[in-house]
Specification:
The structure holds 2 protein chains of 2 kinds. Helix content of chain A is 77%, strand content 0%. Chain A is mainly alpha-helical.
Chain lengths: 298, 266
């Protein structure tokens, strides 16, 4: 047949070679062979075993942390123990909670702007060879710009605060969404488009009903990359600009020599990242059930 | 004879590659399809059969000649012509259930009629009970049935089939041929089938057209005077079927040889 093979190859190479494109599968789901897919019980066992191992990794990391702090391998002025950190999280729960809220606000606003802009512009550029050529060089120039280097400009334009943070978050997370949408829209099978044409779809309804759904798995992968990036940028800007949120909390704790509080902020930030990543991975797994499907079972 | 529902008049197709290379696919192909008629196009591989079908469907403009549908020039895709492609796994929408896939074919129908028509089409192809499944949950044969249902739900005047059974196993192919044959007997559409399977063309058609290699022309037309209704078991046993199949096969081979330079006798 040749067809499904090719689609697979595109997906596989996008996850392993091209750093721009991150395949949907790479996040958590394992690649499961068709033979295994048929056998539901063993598929579930594989998943349970994987979950257990993932939890094991966390336990091992915590153990190592405790070992390093108990043996004073790193001095207690630079590293708090696991128990002291846990206690700090407990006693600062309220402050941490509102810091998480501030971080999430900037994160969500920036990511929302990036998503809307990235999908719309990606779809336009992906559908037009002219727009693609016009933007190609710009994209290659703008994308590698570290967003932290733009903080001075952002402060000049928007002043310190939510607007500035969200703007930088939007700038950074725009790229993976835009690039994946552009690619996803451009590589929709011609046959699928022709089929839609013979069914009477054209113009906007063609884009809405066929092009975007067909590109959805790739758009979702781009979005998932953006989720992580957006959090990194939010916390970094908070840390540098002192604009509130988890980043500022960590900075303040460090400046006040409250090492345990500092680690409390870092752990909470890490946990937040994990929750967001896992949550969206699961959401997309449910929303796009065909994304990981091997086509055509004979 | 009644007016043809679909006509290709001296159609020529020349493809121009991005690098400027020119490839003449078809040259002066003329054919007529009467209402309710079943016509197949066979030919050696590379004869541009699929390109010709795309032109006939309005998906591509011919570079010479014209296509007429219902007596009027056909310049773009139009209601009344449905197409089923070989690669069902790329022509069904994986994000839609089977029901919604078929409903996409009913977009031009009045809203009130749609769901009953979709159900009717699914019944016709034997997919009742699979409405809420997704294409990728079904076998290849069932996916192609769904594609057929989607093509027929709008009650087209012409059904075009581009190698529709080439991606399924032989047993499924026989079953699907009969599904198409039965539907054609019971409905009022004319069918234009492109295939490289000579037996399939003879089995289903009223007429078989043999194309030459590129640039293709219609080399020969064979009338298939086999009795209807036909069935895999009995029709393919008939002496007449065997003769016709051999005749068409001979013509296709002759067409293939002509690629090497010798022109076939006309």
């Amino acid at each position: 047949m040749g067809g499904p093979d090719k689609a697979e190859k595109v997906r596989a190479s996008s996850s392993r070679e091209a750093p721009d494109l991150v395949a949907f599968e790479s996040v958590e789901t394992q690649v499961v062979s068709p033979a295994v897919m048929g056998n539901f019980r063993s598929r579930r066992n594989v998943r349970v075993r994987r979950r257990l191992r993932m939890a094991g990794g966390v336990v091992i990391a915590i153990g190592l942390w405790e070992l390093v702090s108990v043996t004073q391998l790193v001095s207690s002025t630079a590293l708090s123990s696991v128990s002291a950190t846990a206690a700090a999280i407990g006693s600062n729960a309220g402050v941490l909670f509102s810091a998480v809220g501030q971080t999430l606000e900037a994160w969500a606003v920036g990511l929302a702007i990036a998503t809307v802009a990235g999908v719309i512009m990606g779809a336009l550029v992906g559908r037009s060879r002219i727009a693609d050529a016009l933007t190609e060089t710009l994209v290659r120039m703008m994308r590698p710009l570290p967003s932290l280097a733009l903080i001075p400009i952002a402060i000049l334009v928007a002043g310190l605060g939510l607007k500035m943070t969200a703007g930088l978050v939007a700038f950074t997370s725009f790229w993976p969404i835009f690039i994946n949408t552009r690619y996803g829209v451009a590589q929709v099978e011609r046959l699928l488009l022709e089929t839609a044409t013979t069914l009477g779809l054209r113009g906007l309804s063609l884009i809405r009903s066929v092009v975007l759904p067909a590109a959805a798995p790739l758009i979702a992968s781009g979005f998932q990359v953006a989720v992580g990036l957006a959090l990194v940028v939010t916390v970094s800007v908070e840390l540098v600009g002192g604009t509130g949120g988890i980043g500022s909390y960590v900075l303040a704790a460090q400046q006040g020599n409250a090492v345990a509080n500092m680690y409390a902020g870092i752990v909470v930030g890490g946990f937040l990242g994990w929750v967001l990543n896992t949550g969206f991975a699961e959401l997309f797994r449910r929303l796009l059930p065909w994304a990981n499907q091997r086509e055509g079972s004979e | 004879m009644t007016d043809p529902i679909l006509e290709l008049r001296h159609v020529g197709v020349t493809l121009t590659g991005r690098d400027g290379s020119v490839n003449e696919v078809s040259q002066d192909v003329s054919l007529e399809l009467a209402p309710r008629e079943f016509v197949s196009i066979v030919g050696p591989s590379g004869a541009g059969k699929t390109t010709l079908l795309r032109v006939a469907a309005g998906l591509r403009r011919p570079t010479a000649g014209e296509v007429r549908f219902g007596g009027k020039p056909l310049t773009e895709v139009q209601a009344g012509i449905s197409v089923v492609f070989q690669e069902y796994n790329k022509s069904l929408f994986p994000w839609l259930s089977i029901f919604k896939n078929v409903a996409m074919g009913a977009r031009r129908l009045p809203v009130a009629e749609r769901s009953s028509r979709v159900r009717g089409a699914l019944d016709m192809v034997g997919l009742q009970g699979f409405e809420s499944r997704y294409p990728w949950e079904l076998s290849g044969g069932m996916q192609q049935r769904a594609a057929l249902a989607r093509a027929l739900v709008s009650d087209p005047k012409v059904l075009m089939l581009d190698e529709p059974f080439a991606s399924v196993d032989a047993l499924t192919r026989g079953l699907l041929e009969d599904v198409v044959g039965d539907l054609w007997e019971r409905s009022s559409f004319a069918a234009l089938l492109v295939t490289h399977d000579v037996g399939e063309a003879v089995y289903l058609s009223d007429r078989v057209l043999v194309l030459s290699t590129r640039p293709s022309r219609v080399l020969a037309e064979v009338k298939i005077d086999l009795p209807r209704p036909r069935s895999q078991g009995s029709t393919r046993q008939l002496q007449r079927f065997v003769e016709l199949e051999a005749q068409v096969l001979g013509l296709v081979h002759q067409a293939g040889r002509s690629a090497a330079g010798e022109r076939p006798a006309t």
